[in-house]
Design brief:
Layout lengths: L10 H10 L7 E2 L1 H8 L3 H14 L2 E3 L5 E3 L1 H7 L3 H21 L2 E8 L2 E8 L14 E3 L4 H8 L3 H8 L14 H14 L2 E4 L8 E9 L5 E10 L5 H19 L21
Antiparallel strand pairs: 1-3, 2-3, 4-5, 4-9, 5-6, 7-8, 8-9
Helix pairs in contact: 1-2, 2-3, 5-9, 6-8
């Protein structure tokens, strides 16, 4: 946390502290809330918020609360990894959305979090907690568990060695259980997370990996439905087919179709 207007924090650090005050659960804030959450003095916060608002990074609503501005959305769209992946994946995601009538998400790993680059909501489906640009801890979602299962061992040990935040009574907070869960995801290529993120709307999340040009896992594709509405395994064929299509579009060798050469026939024909 930034010091309260102290000289030890750089100007860039103070600006980033203001922006980092916003989160999915705190998407609009008052000036005093930004000051408290950023760790900056009210005077410093007032000045920086004014500058960010003038530039377009923040917007002020009629009730005096602040939110993220469209200028940051424009910059975020320039991120090459997420943008290219989203553009390539979107037609496949739309087909999966139509076929399953479920919420569909595509996430990538950022440190120890999963960040969603696309989220398609199904009408009448269970509430979708994920949104474009939203992030959640890797251990608490199906897509996150896929990304963690195929991450470098150093990343896995970092997560396993840190406190695992509990969101519901079914969130995996035992490192030993999480380790076994990740091993099973690597074995099957599928993560199943039931009601691990929200207790208000019990949900079943099923996710599979998406691979890149070197066959490395670059993203996780997931669907979310209400608990008890459909069996997890019933969603796997459509998920894996879609993930394979996206992986093929990204150039993953394992996703390329196998061309089997027909058996040669002797010149004289079959006997």
């Amino acid at each position: 946390m930034a010091s309260h207007g102290g000289g030890s924090t750089t100007a860039a650090g103070r600006v980033l502290a203001v922006l980092a005050a916003f989160a999915p659960a705190h998407d609009t804030l008052t000036l005093s809330e930004i000051s408290r959450r950023s760790g900056l003095s009210l005077t410093t916060t007032h000045r920086l918020v004014g500058e960010l608002r003038e530039w377009g990074a923040l917007e002020r609503s009629p009730d005096g609360r602040y939110g993220i501005g469209l200028r940051l959305l424009e910059l975020g769209a320039l991120a090459p990894h997420g943008l290219r992946l989203r553009e390539l994946a979107l037609p496949y995601l739309d087909d999966l959305h139509q076929a399953t009538r479920a919420n569909v998400v595509l996430g990538v790993r950022d440190g120890v979090d999963v960040v969603y680059v696309e989220a398609l909501r199904a009408r009448g489906a269970v509430r979708l907690m994920s949104r474009i640009g939203g992030r959640w801890p890797l251990h608490a979602t199906g897509t996150g568990q896929v990304l963690l299962a195929f991450a470098d061992p150093e990343v896995q040990e970092q997560v396993l060695g840190s406190p695992l935040r509990r969101f519901t009574e079914k969130t995996i907070t035992d490192p030993a259980l999480l380790r076994r869960t990740l091993a099973e995801v690597r074995r099957t290529g599928v993560a199943v997370a039931e009601n691990q993120l929200t207790a208000e709307a019990p949900a079943l999340a099923v996710a599979v990996p998406v691979r890149g040009p070197g066959d490395e896992v670059v993203a996780a594709l997931g669907v979310t439905v209400g608990c008890g509405t459909v069996a997890a395994q019933a969603l796997v064929p459509a998920l894996t087919t879609t993930a394979r299509g996206i992986s093929r579009a990204l150039g993953a060798p394992s996703a390329k179709p196998v061309h089997r050469r027909s058996a040669s026939v002797p010149a004289g024909g079959p006997s």
